[in-house]
UniProtKB/TrEMBL annotation:
Protein name as it appears in the record: Unannotated protein
Source organism of the structure: freshwater metagenome
Entry's family note: Belongs to the acyl-CoA dehydrogenase family.
Domain Acyl-CoA dehydrogenase/oxidase C-terminal: start-end pairs: 191-334
Protein transport is among the record's keywords: no
Short name of one Pfam family: Acyl-CoA_dh_1
PANTHER family, alphabetized: ACYL-COA DEHYDROGENASE, ACYL-COA DEHYDROGENASE FADE28
């Protein structure tokens, strides 16, 4: 059995990586911190044109009908370039949730717009205090107990919240059930919410892999140029050990994320455990890589003048999103010991 990505998947990933390299350089990430909206609509539209935004939308609604195995390499590239937009929420979570669980009228209302990029969706499941990118969203999918609702953005009252990552816009939200459409209720809603959570956690883990790989690359470049005692500091054994520790963590986390993608795409019986292992490993890896990168750069790496701080703060924010490493360890222990 071949567990490698196909040539088509790798070509798609490489095309997206090239696009982000051109359209989302560090200057664009810096702009997203300072701009009032912080989102470039032309990038989202171009990604929709490429098929990225509609990747998980069924073909019947104008999408590509692909799955998590196709999506996670692309999300890794989004993490590598610290792209500030709700790809996880719209593409990884909301689109498949609507496709699988929504009545036909709701699916027909929203999925074509997601596929063509005209609809941006975000999500709030039970236990999530804030909503990402509500200020640009057209649709909020929200859970209340054993019910899932679709709420048009004009019926959502939102309040901005502070985030460690200035490019990641968070909001507390309020809405009335009278303005919402019921997607699903009862046990079916709880199952749909659990699956949505798993998709969000796995997608975030993929972004953390990309963030970690980029922080290692930035640090290797820095220690190759920075000199002490007449030689690059990267030649010092202690610095080599820091980078080796960082790469080791990412190397162990990466296949766990791939396994989670495979489990989600194929409805594995152990998908909860696979996703939690992926998110735990990816969060741990990002924490170690961020610490090693900052220690190797020194204080300059934390200043707002240096690009590294964008990746540091994004990794800290995402490591605690969709369950932090400690939460997912407890979940794995529960799944194993109570099985």
């Amino acid at each position: 059995m071949n567990f490698a990505f196909t040539d088509d998947q790798l070509l798609f990933r490489d095309a997206v990586a090239e696009f982000f390299a051109n359209e989302c350089p560090p200057e664009k990430v810096r702009w997203s911190w300072n701009d009032e909206v912080g989102r470039d609509a032309s990038i989202w539209a171009a990604l929709a044109e490429m098929g990225v935004i509609g990747l998980t939308v069924p073909e019947a609604f104008g999408g590509m009908g692909m799955n998590e195995i196709d999506l996670l390499p692309i999300l890794t590239e989004a993490g590598r370039y610290a792209y500030p937009a709700p790809l996880v929420e719209t593409v990884a979570v909301v689109a498949p949730l609507l496709a699988e669980s929504a009545p036909a009228a709701i699916a027909e209302k929203w999925l074509p717009g997601i596929a063509d990029g005209s609809v941006i969706a975000t999500v709030q499941l039970d236990g999530q205090p804030f909503v990402n990118d509500m200020h640009i969203a057209n649709l909020l999918i929200a859970q209340r107990g054993d019910q899932l609702f679709a709420i048009p953005a004009e019926h959502v009252r939102s309040t901005p919240q502070i985030s460690v990552d200035g490019a990641r816009r968070l909001f507390s939200v309020e809405w009335d059930e009278a303005d919402a459409e019921l997607i699903v209720s009862g046990d079916a809603a709880l199952r749909a919410a659990d699956r949505a959570f798993d998709r969000g956690a796995a997608a975030t883990a993929a972004q953390l892999i990309g963030l970690s790989e980029q922080m290692i690359a930035m640090t290797v470049a820095y220690v190759s140029d920075r000199k002490q005692f007449g030689v690059p500091i990267g030649s010092f054994q202690a610095v080599k050990h820091h980078l080796a520790d960082a790469e080791l963590k990412v190397s162990f986390a990466r296949p766990a994320v791939w396994a989670a993608a495979y489990g989600l795409a194929n409805s594995s019986a152990d998908v909860d455990r696979e996703v939690s292992m992926a998110k735990c490993f990816a969060s741990d890896a990002a924490e170690v890589v961020a610490r090693k990168a900052l220690q190797t750069h020194g204080a300059i790496g934390y200043t707002t003048e240096h690009d590294l701080h964008f990746w540091l703060k994004r990794s800290w924010a995402l490591a605690s999103s969709w369950g932090d490493a400690a939460w997912h360890r407890r979940r794995v222990a529960h799944l194993l010991l109570d099985a």
